[in-house]
Every structure is written in structure tokens, then in C-alpha cells.
Write a structure and sequence with these properties.
The chain is an alpha+beta fold. The chain folds into 4 domains: 2-89 and 139-199 and 302-342, DNA primase, PRIM domain (Alpha-Beta Complex); 99-133, no CATH class; 208-298, no CATH class; 348-394, no CATH class. 34% of the residues lie in helices and 20% in strands. The chain has 15 helices and 18 strands. The longest helix is centred in the middle third of the chain and has 20 residues, at 138-157. The chain starts with a helix and ends in a 5-residue tail after the last strand.
Length: 399
Amino acid sequence: MFKNYYNSKFQESLYPSDIQSREFGFLYWDTNKFVRHLGFSSFNNLHNHIISQSPQHIYCSASRYETPDAPNMKLKSYIDCDLIFDFDVDHIPTPCKAIHDKWTCKICGTAGTGTAPESCPSKTCNSKSFGETTWECEKCMEIAKSEITFIIEEFLAKDFGLDPNNDLYVVFSGRRGYHIHVEKEVVRSLDTNARREIVDYITGKGLIPTYHGFNPAAQSKPNIFEKGWRERIARWVLKFVSEASKDDLKKILTDRVNIEEARTEIISQLNSRNPSWAFTKIGEITWNKLIQTTINKFAGKIDQPVTIDVHRLIRLPGSLHGKTGFLVKKLAFSELQNFDPFSDAQVFEGTQQIIVKEAPQFRIGNEYIGPLKDKQIELNMNAAIFLLAKGLADLPNDY
């Protein structure tokens, strides 16, 4: 089915620009080995390779090289690199993971739900090696889409001046995440250190409140009517104080402060144009702690090495994800809000008999399927491949 897709529906228009200058990498079904340092002089050459090999996963470099198929980085003659941001919901402890994700200790077999612990909870084991089964649920997908939208609107557009509809495009990863691609010449020349500064800016890493008005010599304090991180500090502290539970605030403001009085006073001040940030029994140390808490909670969450590493390979738009069968789909920012991966990233037609080991209820298109366990069933091809690719189903013996 992968081969049929690549033979009939693979489109050159979905690709990044300058294919002939990019390195490609493939993971093949039969060998389960990852092969990189491959280059192709044209779309047709790449397409022929993909059809003949039908890879499980296809990757492409964000960088451009003089000789992309050279066997090591020194020989490739680096030109420049697109600016890439990657967000995957795997990095966020969403509540639904406690329901649909599972882990099993590879040593003793102890199992549980949610994200795997750092070490096995069994008193006789302490292994740090786990097998994990993750799930692509609708809540996870919406959180991923919301986060990537936030990064574009809150930082790339507002602070870096990029036009979301002209200067970048978004790619659904085919599983539980999204990528942002910026191919503008002005960003391609940025070196690793410059890209690290951008990451630090988006994540709030290293932010020192003293430099944003929290010092005796400051002529004005941050307020919600400013721009950049001063506005962000005021807005996020206001949001956190407004929404946090009394117990959460007490962890920061301590028992010396009347929590509800402080909450009311902070909200009132931060809604004004010239807040003094002078509250009874709340000093510089406490403010710093409160600001850092809000940064950790609200700042952008991205896979930092993907942005920093100029030799990174990223999933090829237009390819299929080998663990879901979903399309790695290129999107304009204007398409993102209404994009539904369970409908819009499905490419297969027909039906298929499979034997399902176990699967929670899930949706493909308008059809809800399951929950299923130890059941032979005929499903639409997208649902069947989804379960087969995840290792949760097998083909019947007579297939």
C-alpha cells in the first residue's frame, strides 16, 4: 500500500525547495536499518528510488549542500540551512496519556499506564529500560496543533516579524507533532549559536527579571501594554495568578502572605498601565520565583536540538509515517486551524481484514472504531494500516 501511494499520489509540489542540494535518509521495512548521506539530482531520480524501495520512513535535510551525497559532513560542503521548529506532544505530560499510553519494563515485565518512569518501580528490579506503546488521540493532536499555532503567533510573527502566511509553512509529522519550516534567505545563514539564541528566546531560557525592570533603578515596570518579554512577563503572571489554585500560589508566595488578598491586588495592578509590582511581603526573590514558574508553564515548548542542529534530517513532506500510515502533510498556516489529521492525512482506499491484538476506541474520518481486543475484523484501509503499523494488529494467516 505504501508503494501504491508513492507510485500514484506522491507530488513534487509537497517538497522543500532545492531537492538536488539536500541530503536524504531512509529507514527500510525489510532491513530496519537507517541509511543517510544519499542525494538525488532530480525529483524523478528520488521518486524512482522511493518507488523501488518503498521505505518505512523518509527524511530530508533542512540544510543545503554542494555535495549532499558525500559520505560525511566535512565533504558535503555546507551552504546554509532552513530554520526548523519541531513540536511533539510526546514532550508534554497531557492528562490523556495516563489513559491511552502504556509502558512495560523490559527486564521484569512490570507494566503501567502513562509515561514510563525513570526507573522500574519494582523493588527487585530498578531497570531503566522500557517498552512503550503510545497512542495518537484527538486530544493529543489538538494540543500539538494549539502549541505550534502559539509558537507562530506569539513569537515568530509578533517578535521576529515573520508573516505566517508567506514566510513559513507547517508540516504535520504524520504522528503526534508538527514542524515549522522557514526557508527565507535571511534565516538560512544563521549559525548554530544564533539558532540557540532563538530557541532560548522562545523558551525563556536564561531570562533574568532584573533586566526587564525588576531593579530599583528601573524607570518603569513591565506591563501588559508593552511588547516583547516585558509584556509577556506581565501577561503571564496575571494569567497564572488569576487561574492558579490557592495551594499553587501558596507554594510560591508562602504562608506569610494572605493569598486571596495578594491575588486581588496583583490582578488589579497588572491590569493597569503602570503597575508598581510593589506588594506587601512579596520581595525580589518571590517575584523571580513567580516569573520563572509562569515561564515554565507558558513559554514555547519545542524540540530544541532540531532547531539548533544545522545537519539535522527532518521528515519529508508528502511521505508516509511508517508507524501510523498517516501522510506527512505540508500546510499553509491558514489551513492549520481546520486541519484534522484523522481525516485530512489519510491516503488509502479500500478495506482490509486484520486481527487486532488490542486498541482503544479511535476515529478515522467520520468512523469511530473500537475498542477492540483479540478480534478479527474488516476495517477501512487507513484504520487497518494504522493498527498494523503500530504493531497492534496482524494479517490473517491465510492472507
